[in-house]
Amino acid sequence: MVRVPKLTRAEVAQAARNPLLYIAERWTPTERVVRRAILSAVVMSVVIVVTGGAVRLTGSGLGCPTWPKCTEDSLTATSEMGIHGVIEFGNRMLTYVLCAAVGWAIIAARSAKPWRRSLTRLGWAQFWVVMGNAVLGGIVVLVGLNPYTVAAHFLLSTTLITVAMVMWQRAGEGDEAPRPLVGKAVSQLTWLLVVAAGLLIAVGTVVTGAGRHAGDSSDVHRIPVDWKMVAQLHADLAWVVVALAVALWFVLKAVDAPAGPRSRARDLFLVLLGQGVIGYVQYFTDTPEILVGLHMFGSCLVWIAVVRVLLSLRERPVAVPAAAGPAVGKPEPATAG
After folding, report:
1. Exposure string (b/e) for 251-261, b if CB count within 10 Å is 16 or more?
2. How far apart are CA 138 and CA 92, in angstroms?
3. What residues does 180 pair with on adjacent strands?
C-alpha cells in the first residue's frame, strides 16, 4: 500500500491556483522522462492524422452528423449509426488522448530542473493548436466536409507536428543562442527545400479535395479543378523536393559538414523515396484506400524529416556557469616600520 500524503487546506488552495507549480515543487523528472513525454506528443500528433484519414477513407466523415455532440440527442455514437458512427466518434475520443500526451509533455517540461520557460511555451503552443484544430474539426462536420476546411484541418495538424518536433529537438539542447554548423549558402538551400516541401503538402491537400475520397458520399462538394492536372503538379513538386534533397546531401558532403546534418539529409531522401513509390502506385491503381492512408502517414514522415534536417543545421550549447575566481583579499593596513 502506498501512503497517501495528507494535504492541508493551504496546499489544496495552492494546487487549485497553480497546479503546474504545485507539481513542479514536488516532482523532478529525469531528462529521459522529459524526452519520452515530449515524444509521446509527437507520436500522437501523427496518429491523429492517420486516424483522421481513416475516417475520410471509410466514408465516416459524417458518422457523427453534428458537433460537439455526436447527434442532436446523444453525446456518443448510437447503435443505429453503425460502424461509421463508431469510427468518427472514436477519432474524436483520440483527441483527448492527444490532449493528455501534450499535457504530459507540458507537466514534464515544467517540472524539470532547472525550469526552461522556452520548452514549456512550446508545450503550450501545442495545446492551443490542438484546441484550434478541434474547433476546426467541428466546423468541418457542420459544413458537410467542405474540402477547403478539410485541407485547413490537415495543414493545422502539420503545424502541430512541426511544433512538437521543435520541442523534442529543443529538449536535447541548451538555451544559448543558436550557432550555425554550415555556411549561409547551405542554409539557404535548406530553406528552399523546406518551402518546396510545404508547397508539396499544400498541393497534396488540393489533390485530396478534388479526388474520389470525399469522406462520406458522392454528394460532398469537391474542389472544382482537374484532378489529373493537380496530381501531375503534385508529382512535379515531389521531384523538385527530391532533387533539392539530393543536392543538399551532396553539398553537405562536399563542405564536410558534421555527421548530424548529413545523416538527416540521407534519412530525408530515403523517406521521399518510399513516399514516391507509394504515390505512383496509388495513382496507377485508382487510389485504393489503404495506399492513400499510407501516403498520408508518409506525408507526416516526410515533413518530420524536413524539419529534422532544418534543425540539424545549428546547435544550441548548454550554458556553463562561470567558475568562481579566487577571492580578492583586502589590502592590509600599513604598519610603522
Report:
1. bbeeeebeebb
2. 10
3. 314
pTM: 0.88
| Residue range 33-70, pLDDT digits in tens | 999 999 999 999 999 999 998 888 888 888 888 888 88
Cell of 57: 477513407
Backbone phi, psi, residue 179, to 5°: -115, 125
Burial grade of 316 (CB within 10 A; 0-12, 13-18, 19 or more): middle
Helix or strand (DSSP H, E) at 314: strand 314-315
> In the structure grid, which three cell numbers stand for residue 175, read together?
538555451
- Report how far residue 93's alpha carbon sits from residue 100's, in angstroms, rounded to the nearest whole number: 11
Element housing 187 (H / E): helix 184-210
DSSP 3-state of 180: strand
CA atoms of 193 and 241, how far apart (whole Å): 6
Per-residue pLDDT tens over the stretch 262-320:
999 999 999 999 999 998 898 888 888 899 899 999 999 999 999 999 999 999 887 65
The span from the CA of 119 to the CA of 115, in Å, is: 9
